[in-house]
């Protein structure tokens, strides 16, 4: 699970690429950049335990998950 520190995102180094994953932290799963998930789309459909969810990226850079 990702830490809840998105109110203060890490500054960009300018060297990240869309296919790059974030460094894995001890005891945590690897993080994936949202650009990898969305692949240029604004909505992503997720199936989880038989239910369908939609993850939407807003123009202001926020993520909204709905069922």
From TrEMBL:
Region annotation Disordered: where it falls in the sequence: 1-29
Biased composition (Polar residues): 12-27
InterPro entries, per the entry: Hemin_uptake_protein_HemP
Record-linked Pfam families: hemP
The organism's place on the tree of life at top rank: Bacteria
Listed name of the protein: Hemin uptake protein HemP
Species of the source: Thauera mechernichensis
